Amino acid sequence: MIRKLIRMFDKFFFHPIPITGVARMRILIGIMVLIQALTLLPGLEHFFGPDAFVSTYSLYGPDAPHLRLIDWLGGSNRAVRAIFGIHLIAAFCFTIGCFTRTSGIITYLTLISIHHQNLTILNSGDTALRFALFFLIWSPAGGAWSVDSRKKPTTSDHAPWALRMIQIQTAAIYLFTAISKLNGQSWRDGTAAYYATRLWDFERFGFDPVFNSLTAMKWITWASVGLELALGTLIWIPSLRIPLILSGIAFHLGIEFSMNIPWFEWIMIILLVGMWPANRTFFPLLSRRMKSVQS
Description:
Blueprint: H1 2-14, E1 17-18, H2 20-40, H3 44-48, H4 56-60, H5 69-72, H6 77-96, H7 100-117, H8 124-137, H9 147-151, E2 157-158, H10 161-182, H11 185-188, H12 192-196, H13 208-211, H14 214-232, H15 238-258, H16 264-273, H17 284-294
Antiparallel strand pairs: 1-2
């Protein structure tokens, strides 16, 4: 029994799979990091400069755990621009797979520094972005669809332990979110989604025939909890994985349509893409094109 468990563990974490899965995650995570940084540029000094509206320092004091490279450079607006400049260059290099590990480490450190500089503008998606980026650093993420792979071709397969860690964390997010919701009375009685659509500060597009129907909102509430439970557990069953991933993507797109929660839904969609089976091509046309180029 123990030997069987050890073999299952070894196969799950170390049995070689196509390298395109982790390369796909590198591109998507890199693009998301770049987009987030670019959207912050117009208010850069107001969010992170010495005269920022709110800062982590003012909220938690100097003894709060932090990595703030901006402060190490003096905390001036010039330091803010310098760190963001380094962040954008490193994130771009990581996305295209140029000096992938080095650029990934720099991107990770500058991303943490930016987040620690002002925690008040973050949401849980930013935490998910950081852990995905961390594990991608230690994977052969530059082994395909990258500048590095053109300079130094690598094998097409790799031990997927880093990707597995991202997948486990993703499943855990859904599982513990569902468990947390089930502790709330409004989720159990089916009214939570109704109340959520009344949060006007988060409203993007409404759909009154559904949002004003208590019956419909009850079904939406229960279905969302059920889907999150399935994404945290049943997604490990091979025959159910693709239908659940597609359902999860549709679920997050629906939230993105109705509510404005900056980038959270897109980050979760990217993490769901990371759950896609290694033996199934997610972008078939791109894969065929890349194979023709490499041949």
